[in-house]
């Protein structure tokens, strides 16, 4: 009993010594710091496999979300180009009239994605789109159809 008590006290001393100043730990951490934007997460040790839109399997949903947060992030401008088929601010080309309404405005601009739904779809251009609405915008702007080119 005395040994167990001493062991618990020793563990507490080691834990408090290694914890240090919380601000200092935050500053020295590469994860959970202001530059990573990801919380320090400890996922449960539960095996309930999930697979992401790229076919990568994780032990559970928490592990997948943690990896996605800490993984590389897509540049917003690259995302814009992927969805709309051209760089942000690019001049209109002669093919843009295909999707024009009689008043000269682009009918693709009428597609408004109100809900953020994660239901990935593969386009014939080999790109994964986050959801059917995002796919519809891209299909309107580019000549693509739902396909299996992402396999």
From TrEMBL:
<feature type="signal peptide">
    <location>
        <begin position="1"/>
        <end position="19"/>
    </location>
</feature>
<dbReference type="GO" id="GO:0005576">
    <property type="term" value="C:extracellular region"/>
</dbReference>
<feature type="domain" description="Kazal-like">
    <location>
        <begin position="32"/>
        <end position="89"/>
    </location>
</feature>
<keyword id="KW-0646">Protease inhibitor</keyword>
<keyword id="KW-1015">Disulfide bond</keyword>
<keyword id="KW-0722">Serine protease inhibitor</keyword>
<keyword id="KW-0732">Signal</keyword>
<protein>
    <recommendedName>
        <fullName>Kazal-like domain-containing protein</fullName>
    </recommendedName>
</protein>
<feature type="domain" description="Kazal-like">
    <location>
        <begin position="102"/>
        <end position="151"/>
    </location>
</feature>
<dbReference type="Pfam" id="PF07648">
    <property type="entry name" value="Kazal_2"/>
</dbReference>
<dbReference type="InterPro" id="IPR002350">
    <property type="entry name" value="Kazal_dom"/>
</dbReference>
<dbReference type="InterPro" id="IPR050653">
    <property type="entry name" value="Prot_Inhib_GrowthFact_Antg"/>
</dbReference>
<dbReference type="InterPro" id="IPR036058">
    <property type="entry name" value="Kazal_dom_sf"/>
</dbReference>
């Amino acid at each position: 009993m005395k040994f167990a008590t001493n062991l618990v006290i020793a563990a507490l001393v080691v834990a408090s010594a290694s914890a240090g100043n919380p601000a200092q730990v935050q500053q020295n951490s590469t994860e959970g710091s202001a530059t990573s934007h990801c919380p320090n997460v400890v996922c449960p040790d539960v095996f309930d496999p999930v697979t992401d839109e790229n076919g990568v399997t994780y032990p559970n949903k928490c592990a997948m979300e943690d990896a996605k947060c800490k993984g590389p992030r897509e540049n917003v401008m690259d995302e814009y180009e992927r969805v709309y088929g051209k760089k942000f601010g690019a001049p209109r080309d002669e093919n843009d009239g295909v999707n024009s309404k009689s008043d000269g405005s682009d009918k693709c601009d009428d597609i408004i994605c109100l809900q953020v739904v994660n239901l990935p779809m593969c386009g014939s251009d080999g790109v994964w789109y986050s959801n059917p609405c995002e796919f519809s915008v891209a299909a309107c702007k580019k000549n693509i159809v739902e396909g299996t080119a992402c396999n």
